[in-house]
Structures are given as C-alpha cells and as structure tokens.
Design a protein that fits this description.
Length: 102
C-alpha cells in the first residue's frame, strides 16, 4: 500500500463532527514529519469518499483559498457536521480534534 493510500484510508476514519491535523495523519501513517505530504494528498485527492474537509492545520485553520471549490466551502462542510468555529475562524482542536482510530 502506498503512503498516499494509507493517508486516504486513515482520513476515511475521521468521524463527522471531528477534525484531524495534517501532522497527526502523517504521524499515524508512520511519517511524523510528513504533514506537507498529507496536505498535498488532500489537495489532489481523487476519491469522493475521503472527507478531506476534516483535515486542518495544527492551529485549526482551514485550507487556503479555493481548496474545496469555493472560498469558505471547507468551513461550510464542517459546520454542517456540527463543528463550531472560534471567533478567529479556527476549529478548537481540544473540543473537535480526533485523536486517531480507537
């Protein structure tokens, strides 16, 4: 299985209403310094069943620009799942963060 396939398989496990960071996904896939690779995999994901919108940066910030087809689209998708944003636009990882498979 390729590293990207490991990433996609893990991201599929993030439940609705939770987010994970690029770094956590990389760490859980065996590459603790591979956060940028995870970001690239999310940006280039060919699979509709991978909830890429549930992956944020280590500060709880959304992907930049039109990453999901339109500005603000990632936030809209997360809000539909019940995630509440802080006034500064970040996700509170201590509340909505996913720690990995149980």
């Amino acid at each position: 299985m390729t590293f990207r396939q490991q990433i996609y398989d893990l991201v599929r496990q993030i439940p609705p209403g939770r987010v994970a960071t690029y770094g956590l996904i990389a760490f859980l896939c065996g590459s603790p310094r591979g956060g940028r690779i995870v970001g690239a995999a999310m940006a280039q994901c060919p699979y509709e069943d991978v909830p890429c919108h549930r992956v944020v940066n280590r500060r709880g910030e959304m992907a930049p620009g039109n990453a999901f087809g339109a500005p603000g689209r990632q936030r809209q998708l997360l809000e539909k799942e019940g995630i509440v944003f802080r006034p500064d636009g970040r996700v509170e990882l201590s509340i909505f963060g996913w720690g990995g498979p149980e």
